[in-house]
Specification:
Length: 250
């Protein structure tokens, strides 16, 4: 069954709108874990708009002693130190998550909205990927469903890819859905044939997840925005169970 990793960025975004530590991100991570989530994902950015370095450290301490859980830290490997943000690679090496997902985003982006172009960044990424793998992390690259780029992801040493599913989600209910789904399916099949695992994430929700998770050998989905929105009406525990139920159908 495809693993469910919950992205908690929006919990910290809400917390950051006031002084103090309410809502507490560790407390909400525990709720997700207690009700069946297999992983916790965070995306710390240098501007600290949501996840802060302390959150990453606290969640690493929560997840590390639990062997059946995965801690996934995602972000731009080239993000530098800024104020008390130590730099993305430095923070990842300090906290040593199970998986590090490298994403080509910048602070000017509202959210991640494209995968790597490995023609331009592959040479710079290769030593970073090796550096993280040597520390024992699994390394995943955030990728568009472009077959040429997927082939390059294998060549630079990625253990997995995370397919950017924004266009798939945006096509839901339109005539282009099946075409875009097939692009992701073929990209996943190629990645698997090249020895890489396949993750997926971005705007997956209770409406579109079942179809996407029918892709064979899909190992993990990372869901944040829709999960938090659903939790407002359903409650966090029930929302975890709803997503898990969908994933169990394939």
């Amino acid at each position: 069954m495809t693993a469910l990793s919950i992205n908690l960025n929006k919990i910290s975004l809400l917390r950051n709108s006031r002084e103090g530590n309410y809502p507490n991100i560790v407390k909400h991570a525990k709720v997700c874990i207690e009700h069946g989530a297999e992983g916790i994902t965070v995306h710390p950015r240098p501007d600290q708009r949501h996840i802060r370095p302390k959150d990453v450290r606290d969640l690493a301490e929560l997840v590390r002693p639990q062997p059946n859980l995965e801690f996934n830290v995602e972000g731009n490997p080239f993000a530098p130190a800024l104020a008390d943000y130590p730099g993305f690679l430095e923070l990842v090496e300090e906290t040593n998550p199970d998986q590090c997902t490298l994403v080509p985003d910048t602070d000017s982006q509202l959210t991640s909205d494209h995968g790597f172009d490995l023609h331009s960044s592959g040479e710079a990424l290769y030593p970073i990927i090796q550096r993280l793998k040597n520390q024992g992390m699994r390394v995943s690259l955030f990728m568009d469903p472009d077959l040429e780029q997927i082939d390059l992801a294998a060549k630079v040493g990625a253990d997995r890819i995370e397919l950017y599913t924004g266009p798939y989600a945006a096509s839901w209910g339109t005539d282009s859905l099946e075409t875009i789904f097939q692009q992701h399916l073929k990209a996943a099949q190629l990645a698997t044939s090249l020895g890489m695992g396949v993750n997926a994430g971005h705007d997956l929700n209770l409406d579109n997840l079942a179809k996407f998770s029918s892709i064979p050998n899909l190992l993990e989905v990372s869901i944040g925005h829709a999960f938090i929105v659903d939790s407002l009406s359903m409650g966090m525990a029930s929302t975890v169970q709803a997503y898990k139920k969908l994933l169990s159908q394939n």
